[in-house]
User: Fold these one by one.
Assistant:
Number 1:
Amino acid sequence: MATAQQGILDLLSPVPPGWGGVLLSGAASTLAISAGAFLIGLVLGTGGALGKLSGIRPLGLILEVYTTAIRAVPELILIVGLYYAGMDGLNRLLALAGLPAFELNGFAVAIAVLGFVQGAYMTEVLRGAILAIPIGQIEAAKAFGMGPRLRFRRVVLPALLPNALPGLANLWMSIMKDSALVAVVGYQELALATRLAAASTKHYFLFFMASALIYLALTLVSNALFTLMERRVRRGQPKPAGHLAP
Amino acid sequence: MSFSWIDSYWPLLLTGAWQTVALLVISVGFGFLLAIGIAFAQVSGGPVTRLLARGYCTFFRGTPLLIQLWLLYYGVGSLLPLIPGLRQSLFWPILREGFFFAAVSFTLNYAAYEAEVLRGALLAVPKGELEAGRAFGMSPLRLVRRIWLPRAIRIALPTIAGEVVMQLKATPLAFTVTVMDLYAVATKVRQDTLLVYEPLLVVTLFYLVITAFIAGLFRLVERQVPMRR
């Protein structure tokens, strides 16, 4: 029994007879997709939040449609729909410009689509975080004669980070897990790599368990990092009252 | 845009909607019961049960639902026939269906998220109310039944509504294990007619209607038990 067990675990070794290398490179692309989508989401979300708070009616309306529609529709449908629509739209644009159609690589499309979805959630998180800044602080910055950009960098950003970080941490965890959905449109990240390895060795349980543990490890490490980051941005803030402390 | 395919596909769409709703109701119903147990295990269990409950929540909240579903369907599913006698048993027709595995994995996943919500709500019930119950001589079980749990559920209601909608949005994953739910119908229409966006749009509409229904239902329930702030 012990030797049989050894034989099964050999399948996970990182060198070619084992599938560990495939899983690890899958995990690397999962991380890359998540990080890319998170960054795009952060940019879209910052723009969206500032746009929503700018008080410009048509802009606010468009952003409201964006955040509501994206958050109401199942992620899988969005990803599949946007995946094809994105490729299709780009090729039509290229055709209009008289350029030959080209096959976009799945990696870029996956990042763009997940980032676009992530942006809607980020908008709401960041909007809430900005609204939670005491208005007096922003007024004080204005009274000091700071321009909008300096004000954002020196006052708004440091003040919104403690409010936004828990929400951003949640979004990072969910993007890492949602990136598994890209497997459905056929891009090889961790979930699809696992399925491949499992299907060719017939050891389904072993491989899915292994990849679940990889995801879990990624989540736990991120969780620890976000806790550290939150402690850093909260430095100098008063501790919450005793009965609320964990 | 062409929607003429709806004429021949509407019975399939309705079955798909039925499967989606069935998955949702099963996973939310059983998941909620499981969540109550896990939440109490975390709040008032001994060190071992507490550790187990925490581990359960961490595992199911830390891994993608897709992986959990495939782990169950492909992994456990491939081990099930090894149990002697199971293949000949009464339950085999259910046990070999993708629907069964989807329902079980959605239930386990929903329970983990819901347990965290309930844990917070159980801790948020004012201590004085529990002490008042104890002062009336209520046994622990009666205290839970009459005060602790109902109050916690009332506190958690808005969050629960959100969780149920999230669960609805997770159900399309079932199509990867051969369940003919709404999303799978859209995929089938795409394969048959080569239309990509129209079936997705129609199915999206279905999801929006179900979401609106859930939101309305919870608004109704919340209005039944007004909360004083």
Note: Chain B is about 80% helix and 0% strand.
Number 2:
Amino acid sequence: MGVIGKRVAYYPGCSLEGAARAYDVSTRIVAKELGLELDYLEDYNCCGAMESKNVTFMGTMLLNARNMSLARKQGHEVIVAPCNGCSFSLQRAEYFLETDRSVYEKVNALLREGGVDSLDKIPHTYHILEWFYHEAGPQKVKEKTKRPLRGLKVANYYGCLYTRPHFYARTYAHAGGQEEEVRPRKRDTADDDEHPYYMNALLEAAGATNVEFEPMHTQCCGGPHSLSDEMVSEKFVMMILQTAKRNGADIIATECPLCHASLEMYRHRLMMKGVPDVDVPAAYFTQLLGLAFGYGANDVKLKDNLSDPLPVLKRLGLA
Amino acid sequence: MAIHERSLVEPERILRKERLVVEGIDVSGDWNLIILPRVINDYDLDFAKEIINSPDGKTINQCYQCSYCTASCPVHNYWDERYNPRHFIYLARLGMIDELQKRADVMWRCVSCHKCTHRCPKGVLVEEVLKVILRTMAKKGLIEEYPSKKFDKFFTEQVLEYGRIEDGELLFGWIEKQGYKVVKDPILKKPIPFIGETPEWLKELTMKPIKSMNIGFLMLNAKHMLFHPRTKNWNRFKQVLRKVMEEEGALAH
């Protein structure tokens, strides 16, 4: 416990300030309850997500380096992002900046040119789930739980980029002044590569029951192709939802606004087509934790979820 | 002999007779299968060099063709077996551009799940490498416009313009690019939901917050659609960003 730091820079990302505000609100609630402090990263920009990196390499490095520079300016060495896409992008930038000296120098020169401080030190990025697990942990969640999620069967959906790829998230390298020398270091806060369990542990501590959900817990939801390649995304989401339903889940817990949106969108489309066993609603894991901590359905903005998890939660007397 | 990756061999190069008896010995079916050899002389070695020279593509040379990437790829396994990351890397290293072009209709299908990169025993950043291959092909005009590239560019332009993205504008802008008719208000030229043409499922989905009277959610998103959220002090940085992207040739096509 206590490896990452109780007070960190909070990079919400574009999505959390718009359509996924429920995740933002509930994240703040959970952090407050667990005694952790989020320092909002002022004036941040988009991380480029999974889209911009296909168009430009240096552009995405710059976008993320600007955010890192802002975090350094606010005096932080750690950035926490609740979105898989954002944490991935920042970790990816961290990887290339650490391993490739020429990229690092070029980015620093460009940052100064763009009116931002250059990077004296590259801050580390963690997913918010990692942070909750290491700084608070299941024990603290158990202490804070006022209304246990008794009887709620949860399928924990982690998505792709929470555990993958280990090059960026776990075994990042330190260039240490020598060009292209890669010295891998195991990052001991990271979740298990193939069988992530942090969300399972936190929700179990809050009283929920986890259903068997492998290997769909890290299966892709269509990701950056949710809009541009509808048929593939629809098939992937169908596989995820049907596995959850057939394994007896009442609800899918998510930890990424993009996965969440993709699941909800295609769930609706599949239901309109009459595909069986896809009617599992989705909720952010922070919303479920918020409910367990005694907050109401309106406090964690359950109405914002287009897949409408309220009836299920009401039936179990949790909302 | 069985062919393990039959999809990689053109059907006209596979000779196989269902019934064949040679000198009294029955060699029906796979026993008489012959793959005709081919001669390749239009390879382009500079293609691989260009990939190696980019910081995210230089790991391509570490590949030893074990096919872990293909085995873990969800697009290969659940959608189209012609999508084969190992083969794309093989072709790119040899510079067999016409073979890559034959697969142009599936090459863009990567969903960036990073299973390939994660599992690669040689440390090839497979997902990055595949994107670099695509990017290089697009830059050289070897591949036509494909849906994900259109969306990627659309997304990046919004980031470049405002510093942040906004879900509503992204969604409706993309729908408009797909050929639907989106109605816009005359003053701010912003798309108006619920009025124009949208896919039926999306219309129902956008109606949901209205049906549940979720005022806060609607107000917030309406505000964002009207006044796009921006990063402050973005202008100077935007110019640097634009310059970098122009150097890379990212905005040209």
Note: Chain A has two domains: 7-130, 148-158+196-311.
